[in-house]
Amino acid sequence: ISLSPLTNIALALALEPKLPELCPDLYIMGGAVAAPGNVSPLSEANLANDAEAAARVFAAGFELKVASLDVTMETWLSEDYLASLEAIPNLSGPFIYEMSRFYVNAYRVYAGYDGGMPLHDPSAIMMLLHPSFYEFQAWNTSIDTSNYPNPTRGMVIADRRGGPHSPPSDQRTKFATNVNVASVLEELRERISTLP
């Protein structure tokens, strides 16, 4: 699982080119296909911050499962939901609630959202634990490696045409395109409630 720019995975590939054979499954949080970006109109932070590494990883032959902004922004944790975590009678629920205050404020101040926050990184983990909560689509993809500050740097270029004369899709790169938000939120709350 990678929840950050793909620099470390690209470095591992440089050291061991057979990494996709040795460890084929890779779940990542990153990118945006149909959703708008979060660091530019078209790009998501993890891929834009090291677009060259992302391009190498996407082309390496891993069985990629991608939690992009298309599903992470849809999995919105409302203030009421976050308050329900605070009310869990353990140490973890209130702690997670307190940690969320910074992120909720950042989304309010810098992105203009009125309360709540998206579920970015945990979505990649949830895809691994409960793939049935998601619908996946396989597309041929590449990553734009334009120089900064080009707004396309890190953009996922996904061939979504799907017509009879389109090239067959690479079944190894699958993006979560839809999410059962209620199931994700219920599972997240349940798991947090089992913590100390």
The profile of the biggest β sheet is: 4 strands, mixed
Looking at the structure, what is the overall shape? Answer: globular
Individual helix count: 9
Mean pLDDT: 95
Distance between the termini: 24 Å
Attribute tags:
single chain, 196 residues, alpha/beta, four-stranded mixed β-sheet, 8 strands, globular
Description:
There is one protein chain. This protein is α/β, with parallel strands linked by helices and 196 residues long. The chain has 9 helices and 8 strands. The strands form 3 sheets. A 4-stranded mixed beta sheet has the order 1-2-8-5. A two-stranded antiparallel sheet has the order 3-4. A two-stranded antiparallel ribbon has the order 6-7. Helix 6 runs antiparallel to helix 7 (92-111). The protein is globular and about 50 Å long. The two termini are 24 Å apart.
